[in-house]
Design brief:
Elements (H helix, E strand, L loop, with lengths): L2 H8 L9 H5 L42 E5 L3 E6 L2 E6 L4 E3 L6 E4 L5 E6 L2 E6 L7 E4 L4 E6 L2 E6 L4 E7 L5 E5 L6 E6 L6 E8 L5 E7 L4 E9 L4 E4 L3 E5 L4 E6 L5 E5 L1 E5 L4 E6 L2 E6 L5 E2 L4 E7 L5 E7 L3 E9 L5 E8 L8 E5 L5 E7 L4 E9 L5 E5 L5 E4 L2 E3 L2 E2 L3 E11 L8 E9 L15 E5 L5 E5 H5 L22 E4 L6 E8 L8 E6 L4 E4 L10 E4 L5 E6 L11 E5 L4 E4 L13 E4 L5 E8 L8 E6 L4 E4 L11 E4 L7 E7 L6 E7 L2 E5 L13 E3 L10 E2 L1
Antiparallel strand pairs: 1-2, 2-3, 3-4, 5-6, 6-7, 7-8, 9-10, 10-11, 11-12, 13-14, 14-15, 15-16, 17-18, 18-19, 19-20, 21-22, 22-23, 23-24, 25-26, 26-27, 27-28, 29-30, 30-33, 31-32, 31-36, 34-35, 36-37, 38-39, 38-57, 39-40, 41-42, 42-43, 43-44, 45-46, 46-47, 47-48, 49-50, 50-51, 51-52, 53-54, ...
């Protein structure tokens, strides 16, 4: 609905709106003189004088860029850049703006704080009178509760409650009982209660600490799990919103909890929930579950005193504005418009361009900035990812389901949500469609996400593919310039390839794509000496087929290198007498290997072999061998199934029990290796050099064990 139609529709029932803000503005100058009614209570501020129409006859006008910063019994605070205004429900407005100042509204109170450095001036917008000035220590102001400043000493990481006594003294009380960690932000609470979110030291976990203002003591903490985007504490409940657009609600008396879809705010004595879904706002009764949806859209919901809410949004009758919502005599939410927002405009999106696969999404809009998010869902697995813009009219999806995990090949559904950012009004725009990710098949990509994997057998005989990118993200030397950035402790997306029975195999290897299927294949030798082939078919393995018997003569088999230049991976095996044999692949699943070819003798000196592909920039796939003294040797492939003379890489490799190919090096056109052991692991990046084939180790906290990470190959 256009702005013109909205005004024409309501002209009969709404009085004309006047621009009262400038005419009624009263600038409150900071003063050192104070009159206090008691400890820590701000005296009344001067009262604005209404001019013109009687109270209730007009509505003040606000900018669509002004956000609500606090709600009291007589009015509310809005802040736009350096402009701060207190708008009363009687239609008058007070200008609080000062050069270089910051503005804070107290939780559910008429107290407004104007801050300059460590000087904080408290105005009581309900009663008038002289402001109260608090000269605080050099702390960071987090929020205001009543006339108490909630502050953080960033030098010590401690929380303080700072107030002023009736005799003019500044009182600084350190909060006790907080969990250890970094204080992030405060929650919306009632006067007399403060709540802060604390990031536990050394972890990605967060806790919410509820504090009694009178005693400056923590009364209870709640485990938030991850970071909570918005939190609310009422006398009876605690609620916090998560990244997944859900709200966790906990009863403070009983501890009972529930999860609500959408971002929910308690209202009207906790009898209702105001649930936000993008820009849609629904009021839901907690008694019988019935819902009321008086707003066409809403983009900010702020709790006020006595369970009331202040909502920036729009209704079909009134258009854009600020609305006070309270419970009516009939027990239903009653909406009253308290300010007009005449410059609000509804967002429009045109010329939307969506790539077929990873790439750049672009669009045109009727405003300079819009917040746009694309949610992509892989049709086959249901796994999702989201990408958003930085207010520019495009965004690029790099083709990942997370920072360290590539997107699966296949069809995706996408959902675009666009919300106005500059004017902050209008319902969200939703668009949907499909796209397809189709990357070329990569070596050792068993989960079809475009990157190499490590194959892992656990103690119960299950076979799982772990993305090398996620294993590498566990690195312990991670350089991070964000205080909340932590390396992964566990890979998040392992792909189960086999549910059991893999303990029957005494030797396992992945020699490459032997038979021209969708991905690399796996071979396993059982206890009877029979070799079996598992062809890979995009996130699953086909039923095994028998290659042949007599393989009990070998004590090591390795695969992964193309040793003869035909584009297919080959298999190497050492027998119990120390002879190395080559099995070149045929491309035929029924007979995947040619007759074996003897490479040479004396290989019993080695207790570990790895065929990682090309790691040193020579003409073909290479071979790594570790001797019984822990020295690692490199055999460069010649391309005809033979190798050059060995070259020593280094010593100390006995700490690793397994070395496996790790896929392409991001900086060089050669392969990496992953070395794992019971005391730790490391990824070694290939350098494309025959004399110095690896960069320094990238240490990983991954440790082999007998349960989860029993066998790597």
């Amino acid at each position: 609905m256009s702005r013109t139609r909205a005004h024409a529709r309501t002209a009969r029932v709404r009085p004309s709106r006047l621009r009262l803000t400038a005419a009624l503005a009263v600038t409150l100058a900071a003063t050192t003189a104070v009159t206090v009614a008691g400890p820590g209570v701000a005296a009344a501020a001067p009262t604005a004088v209404a001019q013109g129409a009687a109270a209730g006859a007009t509505l003040p006008e606000l900018s669509s860029a002004a956000g609500v910063g606090g709600v009291g019994t007589t009015g509310f605070l809005t802040v736009r850049a350096s402009v701060a205004t207190w708008t009363r429900y009687d239609g008058t407005s007070i200008d609080l703006s000062q050069d270089g100042a910051r503005y804070s509204g107290a939780d559910q109170s008429d107290i407004v704080v104007v801050s300059k450095g460590t000087r904080h001036t408290l105005h009581d917008m309900a009663g008038g009178g002289d402001p109260v000035v608090i000269d605080s220590p050099p702390y960071a102001l987090k929020s205001v509760n009543g006339s108490t400043l909630v502050m953080v000493d960033e030098a010590t990481g401690t929380l303080h409650l700072v107030s002023r006594t009736s005799d003019g003294r500044t009182v600084d009380r350190k909060v006790t009982g907080l969990p250890a960690g970094k204080i992030w932000n405060t929650a919306a609470t009632v006067p007399g209660t403060v709540a802060v979110q604390v990031a536990e030291a050394g972890t990605s976990a967060y806790r919410l600490a509820v504090i009694d203002v009178a005693t400056a003591a923590t009364t209870r903490t709640y485990d938030l799990g991850g970071y909570a985007y918005r939190t609310q504490v009422t006398p009876d409940h605690v609620a916090w919103q998560t990244y997944g657009s859900t709200t966790k609600v906990v009863d403070r008396r009983t501890g009972a909890s529930e999860t609500v879809s959408g971002w929910a705010t308690f209202a009207f004595g906790d009898e209702w929930l105001a649930v936000e879904d993008t820009t849609r706002l629904t009021f839901r009764s907690r008694k019988d579950g019935h819902t009321v949806e008086p707003f066409r859209f809403a983009n900010q919901v702020t709790p006020g005193p006595d369970g009331t809410l202040l909502v920036r949004g729009g209704t079909a009758a009134d258009g854009w504005g600020v609305f006070r919502v309270a419970l009516g005599t009939d027990g239903e939410p009653k909406v009253t418009m308290v300010a007009d927002i005449p410059d609000g405009q509804e967002l429009t999106i045109t010329n939307l361009s969506v790539p077929n696969g990873a790439g750049t999404f672009s669009w045109d809009t009727n405003e300079e900035a819009a917040r746009v998010e694309f949610q992509l869902t892989h049709t086959a697995t249901g796994r999702t990812t989201s990408v958003s813009n930085e207010l520019q009219p495009f965004l690029t999806w790099g083709g990942g389901l997370s920072r360290d995990f590539g997107a699966y090949n296949g069809t995706y559904t996408w959902r675009m949500t666009a919300v106005s950012e500059s004017n902050s009004f209008g319902p969200a725009i939703i668009r949907t469609g499909t796209l397809t990710v189709a990357r070329p098949t990569q070596r050792r990509d068993f989960n079809d996400n475009g990157g190499a994997d490590a194959l892992v057998r656990d103690g119960s005989g299950r076979l799982t593919a772990y993305a090398m990118s996620e294993l590498t993200a566990m690195r312990t030397d991670l350089e991070c310039y964000e205080t909340d950035c932590q390396p992964l402790t566990e890979p998040k997306n392992p792909e189960l390839l086999g549910t059991g029975g893999w303990n029957t195999y005494t030797l396992l290897a992945s020699p490459g794509n032997l038979a021209g299927g969708a991905a690399d294949d796996i071979v396993g030798r059982d206890r009877d000496g029979v070799l079996w082939l598992y062809q890979s078919e995009k996130q699953k393995l086909l039923p095994r087929t028998k290659i042949g018997g007599g393989w009990q003569i070998y004590n090591k088999i390795v695969g992964g290198s193309d040793l003869n230049g035909d584009g297919r991976g080959d298999l190497l095996a050492t027998d119990t007498s120390g002879v190395l044999w080559l099995y070149t692949s045929t491309g035929d699943a029924k007979a995947p290997f040619k007759a074996r070819k003897k490479i040479g003798a004396g290989w019993q000196t080695y207790n570990l072999l790895t065929a990682p592909g090309n790691i040193a920039g020579a003409s073909a796939g290479d071979l790594l061998a570790r001797d019984t003294n822990g020295v690692l040797w490199l055999y460069l492939g010649k391309g005809d199934g033979t190798f050059t003379a060995r070259r020593q890489i280094g010593a100390g490799w006995q700490k690793y029990t397994q070395i496996v190919p790790a896929g392409k090096n991001p900086w060089h056109p050669v392969n990496d290796i992953l070395a794992v052991g019971p005391t730790g692991s490391a990824r070694y990046h290939g350098t494309d050099s025959t004399t110095h084939p690896f960069e320094r180790a990238v240490p990983l906290p991954l440790r082999t064990d007998s349960t989860t990470y029993k066998t790597f190959f």
